[in-house]
Amino acid sequence: MENLRIWITTTLLLTATSLCLRAQEHQFPPRVHFSGLVNGFTPITTGASPWELRGVWSLMLDKQSSTATFSATLTMELSEFGQTVTTVNAVQRAQHAHRITMTTNTVVYNPTDCPPAPPQTPPYTALIELTGTANIEANGSPAPFGSSPLQVCIAGGTNTEFSNVTLVFAESSGAAGHFGPQAIHGVGRRAEKQHNQKSEWARQLMKEFAASGS
Q1: Residues paired with 169 in a beta bridge
Q2: What is the pLDDT of residue 73?
Q3: 77-94: buried (b, 16+ CB within 10 Å) or exposed (e) per residue?
């Protein structure tokens, strides 16, 4: 009787552990689409004004192929700070557009080397990190400073899991000379399973559930 009790207890523990691990593996469905906004400034390096960076970003995370495709479409212009009234009124602020794209298979979950929340703001927890080489356009053509190593991190808090995004170009790269080496901050607006993957995801879960003998 004692052996039977031990066997039942061990079986229940192993089953619970297996289900827990399976839940962790499926924290993200096979394909997830993230999107949001970028709104940041560069340091003042020359002249009297920083550059403003504003735009949208998108990330397709595909766990099945272990790849991630990131893109950001940004406008860039000199801030009004430090400008003369004449310059501002004439809208002479060197406005231009950038498109940043990167496809990589270097994806880290729960990373430890992402930029933290700025001081005097609530902390967040980094959940996803992408690193790779980004291709950069300026006004529709290849940017003069070329491609650049890029780190993209998605983070969040207790209420909204994917609330923040940061972009950091490698400090020695030409892109860092243009955008700055600091973290470019943005907000996450959506995290959605791809609709055409929902049924496949459900079928896979049911298959694994049946295989567990439950």
Answers
A1: 150
A2: 95
A3: bbbeeebeeeeeeeeebe
Q: How far does Cα 136 stand from its chain's mean position? A: 17
Q: Indicate the residue type of 101.
A: T
Listed in sequence order, the DSSP H helices in 26-93 are 85-89
Q: Please report, for the chain, the start and end positions of each structural domain, with discontinuous segments joined by +.
A: 29-211
**For residue 5, pLDDT beyond 70:** no
Residues 59, 38 contacting (CB under 8 angstroms) = no
CA separation for the pair 151, 31 (Å, rounded): 20
Which region, left, alpha or beta, applies to residue 200 given φ > 0 means left and ψ of -120 to 50 means alpha?
alpha
Amino acid (1-letter code) at residue 166: T
pTM, 2 dp: 0.72
Contact in structure between 58 and 33 (CB atoms under 8 Å) = yes
